[in-house]
């Protein structure tokens, strides 16, 4: 059986979790406590870079969320999440990459900082970065139900769980009517409802995001020191 090492709030693990659900595959969820468990020897044996998610399929292990999604699509092609049309495929890949390279870094900064932050310029830049991404998605989506037209794809899988959280970060989706309808359509799906964070989980995640970077930095320094002594 497939095994997914994950954490419920993780923006990197949730798309893989969704893909497994959308493909209706059998899998086991193995939670990883990101307050330090990812630096333990047992997990580092799975991923020496201390990141989630990790997918284990028999004797084969895959790290990095985009690589895992591609692996699942190629290994288990039933209920495909990738279009074959060139333009539709390009749209899916653009949404995936823009989400990870532009929207996700902005979301992380918006979680850590706010308007009252001592680093207000960081907060303002993150807001502009997020708004620029949403404007791009609004235009790319046009009047289609999904980015690839009628087919739900990895574009939705990767972008969906981040976009609908924008109002919680001070950016209203009502300013993006097409994207707002798209997000509501996704949230109505049983798969999205299955992974949705409760208000308490979301609040706890936001609080932890202000603390975890310091923990990660300390543990990484320890890991670097350990590696340098080998």
TrEMBL record:
Single GO term (MF): maleylacetoacetate isomerase activity
Presence of keyword Transferase: yes
Stretches assigned to the GST N-terminal domain: 1-80
Domain GST C-terminal: 85-212
PROSITE patterns assigned to the protein according to its UniProt record, in alphabetical order: GST_CTER (PS50405), GST_NTER (PS50404)
Pfam families hit by this protein: GST_C, GST_N_3
SUPFAM superfamilies registered for this protein in UniProt: GST C-terminal domain-like, Thioredoxin-like
Coiled coil: none
Biological process, per Gene Ontology: glutathione metabolic process; L-phenylalanine catabolic process
InterPro entries, per the entry: Glutathione-S-Trfase_C-like (IPR010987), Glutathione-S-Trfase_C_sf (IPR036282), Glutathione_S-Trfase (IPR040079), Glutathione_S-Trfase_N (IPR004045), GST_C (IPR004046), Thioredoxin-like_sf (IPR036249)
Keyword field contains Transferase: yes
Keywords recorded for this protein, A-Z: Transferase
Classification via PANTHER family: MALEYLACETOACETATE ISOMERASE (PTHR42673:SF4)
Name used for this protein in its record: Glutathione S-transferase
Source species: Gloeocapsopsis dulcis AAB1 = 1H9
């Amino acid at each position: 059986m497939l095994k997914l090492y994950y954490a419920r709030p993780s923006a990197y693990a949730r798309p893989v979790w969704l893909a497994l659900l959308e493909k209706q595959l059998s899998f086991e969820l193995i939670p990883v406590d990101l307050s330090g468990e990812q630096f333990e020897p047992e997990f580092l044996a799975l991923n020496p870079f201390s990141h989630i998610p990790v997918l284990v399929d028999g004797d084969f292990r895959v790290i990095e969320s985009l690589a895992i999604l591609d692996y699942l699509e190629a290994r288990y092609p039933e209920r495909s999440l990738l279009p074959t049309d060139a333009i539709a495929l390009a749209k899916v890949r653009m949404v995936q990459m823009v989400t990870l390279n532009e929207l996700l870094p902005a979301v992380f900064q918006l979680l850590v900082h706010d308007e009252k932050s001592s680093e207000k310029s960081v907060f303002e830049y993150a807001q502009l970065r997020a708004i620029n991404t949403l404007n791009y998605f609004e235009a790319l989506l046009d009047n289609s139900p999904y980015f690839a037209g009628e087919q739900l794809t990895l574009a939705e899988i990767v972008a969906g769980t981040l976009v609908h959280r924008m109002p919680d970060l001070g950016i209203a989706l009502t300013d993006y009517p097409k994207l707002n309808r798209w997000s509501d359509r996704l949230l109505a799906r049983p798969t999205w409802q299955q992974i949705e964070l409760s208000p308490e989980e979301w609040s706890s995640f936001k609080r932890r995001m202000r603390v975890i970077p310091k923990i990660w930095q300390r543990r990484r320094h320890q890991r670097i020191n350990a590696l340098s002594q080998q």
